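In the current project phase, the collection of sequences with tokenised folds has grown. One resulting record follows, to show the layout:
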Amino acid sequence: MFADTHCHLSFPDFDADRPEVISRMLDERVSVLIDPGTDAATSRRAIELASRYRFIFANVGLHPHETNHPLEENIYEELAGLAREPKVVAIGEI
């Protein structure tokens, strides 16, 4: 059994082959995967991906690089709300 705790599988880089990547992970016995968000939008995508697969979970958060520019209004409230989703297992991004 293996766990990947930081994979960003919901990022657009994987749009072309995400199902194949997931299949390979399962073939290699990855049984837990945590997909971290780096802002509100990517946190929502991580939750959406996690909702489709039993072994995938989401992490909501705000990457430090995202704080180099003005933040979305109410970002912390939005992340707090997203953190209440059933498939969210962690908060934060480093």
The CA atoms of residues 39 and 59 lie 10 Å apart. The two ends are 25 Å apart (CA to CA).
